[in-house]
Design brief:
Elements lengths: L9 E4 L10 E7 L2 E6 L2 H9 L3 H8 L3 E3 L4 H11 L5 H19 L5 E9 L2 E8 L5 E7 L1 H5 L3 H4 L3 E3 L2 E5 L6 E6 L11 E4 L2 E2 L3 H12 L7 E8 L1 H10 L4 E7 L2 E2 L5 E2 L5 H6 L2
Parallel strand pairs: 4-14, 7-8, 7-9, 7-11, 11-13, 12-13, 13-14
Antiparallel strand pairs: 1-5, 2-3, 2-4, 5-6, 9-10, 15-16
Helix pairs in contact: 3-4
């Protein structure tokens, strides 16, 4: 039997049903307060992830926060929380958590090339991730490097753009000290913004604004975070309708200095021992 063409040029977006273990938290702002709704997964799956075209415009105007209740995600978050965890294990745990969150975040999002190939025993219909459309991974330094460490092992095609943003300890205002973003992203580029701690929201808002200035729509940006907190999530919800956030856990509050409670401490210091 003659082998068929290696890959057809058919190109589409693959959106399989959500797995039953994926909980979805949607944001609602009332009187500037943050609240989460965790509804039964079957109902939320049918409403959100299998939405009809008529419902799409409604969903485009809502920011969603995904907290996958996978036991491995809970395990690595627990390792990160432990103040006794040494730096090398902390950094490794951050990388493993990032791997799992990026796996979940890419589930219904990657461009697909479909066609037929010749296997040793016959012709098979196949789907590959389209290498012509690499996902842009933007880790926010320093700790974002650890959370994004395994991006290339999860995603077959990636480009990494480093972004360094520091936060003033007194004013809590962000300052960009390193910018390796391109002048313009290609049309339709999907972007993972990787920031371990979503606390006050200043750093992540600065990063997303810079990415949007370079031509990326809200719907093509996904935020990956180890720990998120209501002030940051409320700020993101107000500014970026249609944005999706994937977090290992949501903690309730901040200290006066903008540290998440109970959180996991300073993710950069604990990752690199400085």
């Amino acid at each position: 039997m003659m082998a068929s063409s290696p890959i057809s040029s058919t190109h589409h977006h693959h959106q399989p049903p959500a797995p039953p273990f994926l909980h979805i938290l949607s944001l609602s702002l009332h009187n500037n307060k943050f609240s989460c709704f965790n509804k039964p997964h079957k109902q939320r799956t049918s409403i959100i992830l299998q939405a009809t075209a008529e419902k799409k415009s409604v969903l485009d105007n809502r920011m969603l926060v995904f907290v996958p209740p996978h036991p491995l995600i809970k395990h690595w978050v627990s390792v990160l929380r432990n103040e006794q965890t040494p730096c090398p294990i902390f950094k490794s745990a951050m990388a493993e958590l990032g791997r799992l969150l990026m796996y979940e975040a890419s589930r219904d999002w990657l461009p697909i090339v479909s066609g037929e190939i010749q296997s040793p025993l016959g012709v098979a219909s196949v789907e590959f991730i389209d290498p012509r459309e690499p996902v842009a991974v933007v880790p926010i330094l320093r700790a974002g490097l650890a959370l994004a460490e395994h991006a290339s092992s999860i995603l077959p095609a990636t480009n990494t753009y480093h972004l360094g943003v520091s936060r003033d300890e007194e004013t809590l205002q962000p300052t960009v000290y390193l910018n390796k973003l391109p002048e313009k992203f290609s049309e339709g580029t999907r972007v993972f913004v990787v920031d371990p701690m979503l606390a006050t929201g200043g750093t992540i808002v600065t990063a997303i604004d810079m990415i949007k200035e370079r031509g990326v729509d809200n719907q093509n940006i996904k935020v990956v975070s180890a720990v998120a907190c209501p002030p940051a999530l409320s700020k993101l919800s107000e500014k970026y309708p249609g944005l999706h956030v994937y977090a290992g856990i949501i903690d309730p509050t901040l200290t006066d200095k903008g540290m998440i409670i109970p959180g996991l401490g300073d993710a950069g210091d604990r990752s690199y021992g400085t």
